[in-house]
């Protein structure tokens, strides 16, 4: 036998042990071959699959993303970013006067009440062959101001709030917070509002109870420890110099806040009734980890998919089918309202596009529009949960997405018995797999937790009602819906590449 490079023989001089030992490396190789068999599905970390140049590209891509996250903390700001970026690359707003004049290669966009946008790069094939659409949502869990928010208590001025989306309320206490939004004043002037982001700005805070006196609070369930009506934001604590001594206990601090707002925005208290202000975490997105592998920041559900999808569209030079990115509002509260996915915004925009591309001898616009919807293919670009070693018991590890393993596809979302899901057809999942593999996009499969553990939905089900093929496909996150969420830079880059590969594909 061979031991550390020298030969051992039995006392009788028989080398039979050589035969057995000589076979050992072969057996080891067989075991290795079995492990690497192409018959097995074994996801790998992105860093094991790409070269040094691609690694540099992934890290560089995250720099633009961090800037985006820092600047975009509301759906309105997301629309401003998307439109500004689109215009710089030759996209123009669609106008009805363009009917009949649009041509392949044209780039147009539609804005929905400053809270949603649809961007389209016109392809070579007729629209009744269908489009390739990537849809994501711009809204994120947050805290909104009530219509009449400002009040004073114990010589402090505060805002009453109403949380938006699925949050853990206790996570929002004792954090530096900023105010983002818009006010339409009584004179009709529209005033964008951002306070708490500039270095010279004040920040705001929802106070918490000190642990020394939190005995009763600590015995409550997490869902009960902080009440929704207790999420009051501290915004001031000095009396107005214009109030008399007698009135200072009755509202002088509140008056001081109103005077500040009047000086900066020309506001009166009544103007809160026609305002949309959001309370969000203050400060920039940051690298996380010694190796800077992760991006930490607010609103990555679902702005990570908005950014990667839009940038993928902007990078396309020529497309076979018309490529569309749809960014909508209200997903976190059920996709309702006239800016959510359940509105008719996408239908209207596509109808305008069909009419705008009509030429002699073409199908009737109504039929072309309906064929366009039914023959389209879509990726519902939304995040999924990543496997967190601190909380791995809530996931089926055989079906969980992992950070750093690439773009995560989910055949279905929903909850329990697949309620609230569209459940993608096997044929379409196969098409997407082929596209991603052909373009060497690193991807994985993921599921939103164990059966009966909980779950969640996306806009996929509202796209599927038109008959189009839809698959959920997005970035895995840790700490989803927290004030700070975590994404891996490798997954962000692969989402960008995957969405681009899909929209550039030549499907039958």
UniProtKB/TrEMBL annotation:
GO terms for biological process: proteolysis. Keywords: Aminopeptidase, Hydrolase, Metal-binding, Metalloprotease, Protease, Zinc. GO terms for cellular component: cytoplasm. The keyword Lyase does not apply. Its cofactor is Zn(2+). Pfam families: Peptidase_M18. Belongs to the peptidase M18 family. This is M18 family aminopeptidase. It comes from Heliophilum fasciatum.
